[in-house]
Design a protein that fits this description.
Layout (H helix, E strand, L loop, with lengths): L15 H7 L2 H8 L2 H8 L4 H12 L2 H14 L3 H29 L3 H5 L5 H16 L2 H19 L10 H8 L4 H18 L4 H24 L8
């Protein structure tokens, strides 16, 4: 990370979200080009690795919806609240349903769906989402939301890659790479561009800190799925 404030950047054409990503390019690139993503597109993720990934990832939904709620409450425009509310409905319907179907496909018992053992990486990301939500500051909420969604759009955007045959792989890709999702991420970034650039230097530093921690946690999460827990 750089200590240079966004408003003192050398390239004034860079948007706030582009500036944030540039500060975390190594972790960003490592996450979106991760071995797990390559195996997901190939449909070759080992079953125990995929179980571990999905079980732990599902534990983010509750905190993520709470973070969306905090963003809705702290947004400065009614139109922003409406757009975020519609996205929340998608998370609690289409994405939640995918997880339930995937768990059925993998034969995972209810205890691992509802109250699994949490890894340190999962807990750390939950804590960051809670921290952002409790700030009740719209651009800080967005700083974590943008990473969680933009980074997923980025890894899913492989236009020349064919989809794997099983829904458990293919649908996780298409949930994060479709025109509606891409349009939402463009809007979400524009919201952080607009509100983040208006923050004072201290506020921008907090935003950059949360954004950077979120990117590092995304990379750590992908790394840690290759040391899976047992879900028998």
């Amino acid at each position: 990370m750089t200590d240079t404030p966004f408003n003192s950047r050398k390239n004034p054409a860079t948007t706030f979200t582009e500036w944030l990503r540039e500060q975390n390019q190594d972790n960003w690139d490592a996450a979106i080009n991760h071995r797990f993503i390559d195996e997901l597109f190939a449909g070759s993720v080992a079953t125990d690795v995929l179980q571990h990934y999905l079980v732990q990832d599902y534990q983010f939904i509750d905190r993520f919806v709470a973070l969306l709620g905090a963003a809705i409450a702290s947004a400065d425009r009614f139109e922003s609240r409406v757009r975020l509310a519609r996205f929340t409905a998608m998370i609690t319907s289409d994405e939640n349903t995918y997880f339930l179907r995937a768990f059925d496909e993998l034969g995972l018992p209810a205890k691992h769906r509802n109250t699994p053992q949490l890894t340190p990486q999962t807990k750390a990301f939950q804590d960051l989402m809670t921290e952002a939500a409790q700030s009740q500051i719209y651009p800080l909420c967005l700083s974590v939301l943008v990473v969680a969604e933009w980074l997923y759009l980025s890894w899913a955007d492989r236009p020349d890659a064919p989809l794997p045959p099983r829904f458990i792989h293919a649908e996780w890709i298409t949930l994060h790479n479709n025109p509606a999702f891409a349009d939402f991420i463009g809007w979400l970034r524009s919201e952080l561009d607009r509100t983040g650039a208006a923050l004072d230097a201290d506020g921008q530093a907090r935003s950059a800190d949360m954004f950077g921690r979120a990117v590092k946690l995304e990379r750590d999460f992908f790394d840690h799925v290759y040391s899976p827990l047992q879900y028998s």
